[in-house]
Amino acid sequence: MKKSHDSFEEFPQDDVRSAIRSGIVQAKEQTVQPHYSAANWKRKITYGLCSAAAVFGLLVGSSYFSPALASSLSQIPIIGSVFGNSDLISLQQAQKSGLTSEIGETQTVDGISVTLDEILYDQNNITIGLVIESDKELEDFYFGAGMDFTINGKNPSGSTGSYGEENLSETTRTAIQEINVTEEMPEEFELGLMLQGQKGETWYFSTPVEQITDIRKISVQHTQTVDGLTITVPEMSISETGVSIAYESVEEETDFDLSRGGNIEFHVVDQNGNEITGRSGGASGERVKDKIEFRSSKQFDPLDSSVRELTITPYLVIPSGGGGVEIDENGKETELDSKGHLIKPVEFDSFKVRVPQID
Fold first, then answer.
1. What percent of the chain has pLDDT over 90?
2. Which CATH number is 252's domain given?
3. Order of strands, edge to edge, in the sheet holding 159-167?
């Protein structure tokens, strides 16, 4: 159901901003605390992966628009404009079907107006649309990697995501941020958001979020081990907005730079050989004793009603660049360089999943 936010409704803005600021600061402090078990402490790490299926997160730049179109788009925010004008079929479908929450709240700091346009919350996946307008031209990557976030005032222990912008004119751009949480999520929660600019400007938002209904979960329980790397696909879920394939990996490795579990993607085709396009990537992992474990949920475009069966082929994407950040037991962060050229290739077997039909 679409939910409209009345931007003229009075509410204690200062109190809300202060609460969000405190919540995000506390959440950051919680994420760098050490994690202990009876036998050992676990070292957390999150990777931003570069892969063919993660194109969404890499599309930061500008696109060509006619002067007339650019002029009309510069008049936004029009609530619900970002998802409808995106190239992502899932977001277009979600908006068309009334599954997004329309917010339309605008905050202006130092001549830069940021509008929280709309939000979609489906299978553990939160997608946020922003409209950004500035009195002056902004540099690329002015907002870095996008928003920090909290769920009910806390930062989830495992999450990945991507952030991309599209320039509509010299002073107007839209942005889409995708957040994928790898732990169980409540059906409803308060989403806190904080965006920071290159010069220290800060925008705070807070809004209730509700998961879409009619999400069908399919038990898969597929496991295979190749060259010391075990991957398990416990389930997949299907909704009107897309397909989500959850996977876990365990590898007999202690060096994150050489581990392969976080670099797994899936090639998916239907019974007629038509490919289902993937739209996001990323995985969160941790070292447990002498093994490295990763978890992720890969997102794909919505299925056509004619799809009866899917053939899923896991494959390894060896990164040509990138890296990660390692957080030790004292909360110290260490930048990690990529060792993609040293990663050993691996080939997995395909498996099939029947898609139940709705009567």
1. 47
2. 2.60.40.1640
3. 61-62, 159-167, 172-181, 125-134, 112-121, 101-109
Under 8 Å between Cβ of 229 and 261:
yes
Q: How many domains does the chain have?
A: 2
Is 124 found in the same domain as 229? no
Together in a domain, 174 and 27: yes
* pTM: predicted TM-score of the whole model, two decimal places: 0.70
Q: What sections of the chain are H helices per DSSP?
A: 13-31, 55-58, 67-73, 81-84, 89-96
Q: Where does the pLDDT of residue 71 fall: very low under 50, low under 70, confident under 90, or very high at 90 and above? A: very low
- Measured between alpha carbons, how far is 336 from 324 in angstroms, rounded to an integer? 5
What's the CA angle centered on 222, arms 221 and 226, to 5 degrees?
145
Rg (CA), the chain: 21
| 84 burial type by CB count under 10 A (0-12 exposed, 13-18 middle, 19+ buried) | middle
The candidate with the shortest Cα–Cα distance to 46, out of 280, 341, 296, is 296
Query: What is the token pair recorded at 265?
Result: 């993607």
- % of the chain at pLDDT higher than 70: 71
Residues 6+ apart with CB under 8 A from 156: 181, 182, 183, 185
Positive or negative, the CA dihedral 340, 54, 198, 195 is negative
Average pLDDT, the chain: 78
Torsion of CA 198, 136, 116, 90, to 10 degrees: -90
DSSP 144-163: TT--EEEETTB--SSEEEEE
**Local confidence band at 116 (pLDDT 50, 70, 90 cut-offs):** very high
